[in-house]
């Protein structure tokens, strides 16, 4: 295989420094696109869209057709794992996900020991369809939520500002919380391996709420379960690259990278650039970290930020991205300006 048949996104994850960094955006398939809103309306609900392989594949491909990003990300959600574990999941229109909270022994027992992989079959079918339709030079990213972040939703039944209910549970009953984490770990390994078998080229583990844990808690609830997922994926697919994104973990990220063995690290918007370059990018390729608010605002500040990020991280293996998901009211023209600036 010549180097150039390999997607630039994978070359960066493999440790190659590219003059023009590969580019994709978290939540690139989403409400800022009129073609997404149209299909979303047709599907009736967000979950109906996730579980319909034809529509989910189409939504995954939309931003690739429009913008030519270097990677597509499977259109799904981290909360399909709780759903496959038997927990009721629905989306409150205009608000967000809702689950029946798991906060005691009885409710924990009510969800199966292992996820029902049949429930995830439509999502795996989406992967097959997308891989078949994507240009060879465009990588396909699969994903799951990290156990800690998924558990925060499973325990609270919804997104929370401080992850209080999950923290309260692990403080009150460590064993119960550990069993919940274990279930998520095992299910996530099977789920990621199924995605890889169906055609994803790399996977990302989203730990959106990693920043709410102190160092000892971070070790137990973020690092340890993530390490098990990395090992479980490696055992079956040793060459598939794994990106860890412990959002908000800042100074704990170098330890996370070393201990979990992830191949690359996502950088949130708020991280100090000098620190990220010296202490994280010295270990693994990094991905990030433009502020979604700056993208939405546009203007000369957007160009300045893109230049600053490229000059900080461009001299080493780097994937350009946002520090968190694109905001729904981001003008498409600003995304076009961003792409031009990154590829200039
Ligand atoms: O149409 C809509 O209104 C649904 C909005 C939406 C979308 C487009 C949700 C609901 N999820 C998604 C897709 C999604 N979610 C992807 C697809 C790929 C992509 O384009 O990037 C991914 C990777 C996720 C991951 C996800 N879901 C995370 C981790 C990343 C992050 O954003 O921090 C989390 C925390 C979720 C839960 C979730 N799903 C949806 C919402 C609004 C939320 C957050 C709810 C909350 O915290 O209150």
Automatic annotation (TrEMBL):
GO CC field: cytosol
MF (Gene Ontology): uroporphyrinogen decarboxylase activity
Broad class of the protein's primary localization: cytoplasm
UniProt-listed InterPro entries: UROD/MetE-like_sf (IPR038071), Uroporphyrinogen_deCO2ase_HemE (IPR006361), Uroporphyrinogen_deCOase (IPR000257)
Keyword annotations from UniProtKB, A to Z: Cytoplasm, Decarboxylase, Lyase, Porphyrin biosynthesis
Biological or metabolic pathway of the protein: Porphyrin-containing compound metabolism; protoporphyrin-IX biosynthesis; coproporphyrinogen-III from 5-aminolevulinate: step 4/4
E.C. number: 4.1.1.37
Site feature (Transition state stabilizer) residues: 77
Gene3D superfamilies assigned to the protein according to its UniProt record, in alphabetical order: 3.20.20.210
Domain of life: Bacteria
Uroporphyrinogen decarboxylase (URO-D) domain boundaries: 22-31, 141-157
List of residues binding substrate: 27-31, 77, 153, 208, 324
Catalytic activity: uroporphyrinogen III + 4 H(+) = coproporphyrinogen III + 4 CO2
GO biological process terms, semicolon-separated: protoporphyrinogen IX biosynthetic process from glutamate
Subunit composition and interactions: Homodimer.
Family named by the database record: Belongs to the uroporphyrinogen decarboxylase family.
Function noted in UniProt: Catalyzes the decarboxylation of four acetate groups of uroporphyrinogen-III to yield coproporphyrinogen-III.
This protein's name: Uroporphyrinogen decarboxylase
Organism: Bosea vaviloviae
Gene name, Swiss-Prot/TrEMBL: hemE
């Amino acid at each position: 295989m010549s180097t150039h048949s390999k997607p630039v996104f994978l070359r960066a994850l493999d440790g190659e420094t590219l003059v023009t960094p590969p580019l994709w955006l978290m939540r690139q398939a989403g409400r800022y696109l009129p073609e997404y809103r149209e299909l979303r309306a047709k599907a009736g609900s967000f979950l109906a869209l996730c579980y319909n392989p034809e529509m989910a594949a189409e939504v995954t491909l939309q931003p690739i057709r429009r913008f030519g990003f270097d990677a597509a990300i499977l259109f799904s959600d981290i909360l399909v794992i709780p759903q496959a574990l038997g927990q009721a999941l629905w989306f409150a229109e205009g608000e967000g996900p809702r689950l029946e909270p798991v906060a005691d022994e009885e409710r924990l027992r009510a969800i199966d020991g292992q996820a029902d992989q049949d429930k995830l079959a439509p999502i795996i079918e989406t992967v097959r369809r997308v891989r078949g339709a994507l240009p060879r030079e465009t990588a396909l990213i699969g994903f799951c939520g990290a156990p800690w972040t998924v558990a925060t939703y499973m325990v609270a039944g919804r997104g929370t500002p401080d992850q209080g209910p999950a923290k309260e549970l692990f403080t009150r009953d460590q064993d119960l919380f550990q069993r919940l984490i274990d279930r998520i770990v095992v299910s996530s390994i099977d789920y990621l391996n199924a995605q890889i078998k169906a055609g994803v080229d790399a996977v990302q583990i989203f730990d959106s709420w990693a920043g709410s844990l102190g160092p000892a808690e971070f070790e137990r609830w973020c690092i340890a379960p993530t390490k098990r997922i990395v090992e479980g994926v490696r055992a079956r697919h040793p060459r598939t690259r794994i990106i860890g994104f412990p959002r908000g973990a800042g100074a704990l990220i170098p330890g996370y990278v070393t201990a979990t063995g992830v191949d690359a690290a996502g950088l949130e918007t708020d991280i100090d650039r000098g620190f990220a370059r010296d202490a994280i990018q010295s270990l693994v390729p990094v991905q990030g970290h433009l502020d979604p608010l700056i993208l939405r605002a546009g203007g000369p500040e957007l160009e300045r930020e893109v230049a600053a990020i490229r000059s900080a991280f461009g001299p080493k293996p780097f994937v350009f991205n946002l520090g968190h998901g694109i905001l729904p009211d981001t003008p498409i023209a600003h995304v076009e300006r961003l792409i031009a600036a990154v590829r200039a």
